[in-house]
Specification:
Helix content is 16%, strand content 32%. It has 408 residues and is an alpha+beta fold. The strands form 5 sheets. Strands 4, 5, 6, 7, 8 and 9 form a 6-stranded antiparallel beta sheet that branches.
Length: 408
């Protein structure tokens, strides 16, 4: 958190720095036993665990955008993650209110009403969409769901869950077996075969997705008794031809130690675009509050909680954001009436900013503060500060261990 001297209401800024999951690098070959795959490969566990397989129902999203009464088509979009459950009925519609900037970027993403389930992953994916140039308000994305029993799901539905939703558990394993084809005995990745040489794709090759965007490819292959990959094919893709080619090359050039032959191995790679910077913070003269009475001394007395959390789905994509958080302070230091004034590009940043201020402290003093406003910024590090392949984890990396909050 940075206080611009001299302190004035709404001049308090928090900077949250967290490494994005995607850090593209060049192709590399690794020799030796049990070499772990780099985290640029889709790692399960970003959303949660699956329900049991037999009664599972996939909920497939079908989004449609409108601004006012008119439908509007994006110039860039991505598949939204499907969901899973045990009910046979389709989920209620999910509505996201939004606006567009002059360049067509999506802003002010807000869930409309209550929805049974988290919406952060959908907000994060939608933040990467682009519409035709032009500032627009009164827009909404309506996501309707199509309930498909797992046993009746077709390949496109299975691919969406496997490559876009990315949960871990029995259902994902069952989908890998279905994608592997009749008689598949490998499952996801190597089917228990020990790797001798693992080749990874060059994720910087060709044209990457736009900032905040993501592309993916799903491959299937067999492994012979000598450890060679055979019959390598692309099962499905988001349309990134360079990533498709690199995935095929990486799998074909990898080698396992000799062992039992395996059929129907399935895996997917993905890559992100560059970080998507947050839109400009609303200037102070654009958010005047006649009821505000926040003395400059409040800034010196404020200690921000060290436990800052970047919304995981946005961190995973490198989508930056900010929130304007308003609060009152009693003379003895108690913080209350915490509320979000504005958050961009999505409501998820406002929720995290509100939690941050609620957990912070103000030392006792002689003055109270009324309707003080804190701009909380969520910022990813520069691209050259991130290792080529990030961290080998099952989810977004944690924020740096050192305190990213600084008071000037």
């Amino acid at each position: 958190m940075r206080v611009s001297p001299p302190f004035a209401p709404a001049a308090l800024i928090a900077s949250l720095i967290a490494a994005p999951v995607l850090a593209a690098g060049s192709a590399a070959a690794q020799s030796g036993p049990a070499t772990p795959s780099p985290p640029m490969v889709v790692r399960p566990g970003l959303i949660g665990t699956d329900p049991p397989v037999e009664p599972a129902v996939l909920q497939i999203p079908a989004p449609q955008a409108r601004c006012g009464p008119d439908a509007i088509s994006p110039v860039y979009d991505e598949s939204l993650p499907s969901r899973s459950g045990v009910g046979v009925s389709a989920l209620p519609d999910l509505v996201l209110n939004f606006s567009t900037a002059a360049d067509g970027r999506v802003l002010s993403i807000r869930p409309d009403g209550e929805f049974a389930g988290e919406t952060e992953t959908i907000q994060a994916a939608f933040a990467a969409w682009r519409f035709p140039a032009g500032a627009r308000g009164d827009c909404r994305l309506t996501v309707r769901w199509r309930a498909v029993p797992f046993a009746q799901a077709e390949t496109p539905d299975l691919l969406n869950f496997f490559a876009v939703t990315r949960t871990t558990g029995q259902l994902r394993n069952a989908i890998a077996r279905r994608l592997g084809g009749d008689g598949a005995d490998c499952g996801e990745l190597r089917g228990g075969r020990r790797p001798e040489t693992v080749v990874v794709p060059d994720l910087l090759k060709g044209r990457r997705p736009p900032p905040g965007g993501r592309s993916w490819t799903v491959l299937r292959w067999n492994i012979d008794a000598e450890g060679r990959a055979t019959d390598v094919v692309t099962l499905g893709s988001s349309g990134d031809a360079d990533l498709d080619a690199e995935g095929l090359r990486a799998v074909a050039q990898s080698r396992m130690y000799p062992g039992p032959a395996r059929t129907g191995c399935v895996y997917n790679f993905f890559r992100n675009g560059e970080a998507l910077p947050a839109p400009p913070v609303t200037p102070e003269n654009g958010r005047e509050d006649p009821l505000q009475d926040c003395p400059p001394a409040i800034g010196a007395r404020l200690t921000v909680n060290r436990d800052m959390r970047f919304p995981p789905a946005f961190q995973d994509r490198g989508v930056e954001g900010w929130a304007l958080v308003r609060f009152d302070v009693a003379p003895w230091g108690q913080i209350g009436n915490v509320a979000v004034v504005e958050a961009q590009p999505a409501a998820a940043f406002g929720e995290e900013g509100r939690r941050l201020i609620q957990r912070s402290q103000v030392s006792a003093g002689f003055q109270a503060g009324v309707r003080c406003v804190v701009p909380v910024r969520f910022i990813t590090p520069p691209a050259d500060a991130v290792a080529p392949y990030g961290q080998d984890t099952d989810g977004p990396p944690s924020p740096p261990a050192s305190n990213p909050v600084v008071l000037d």
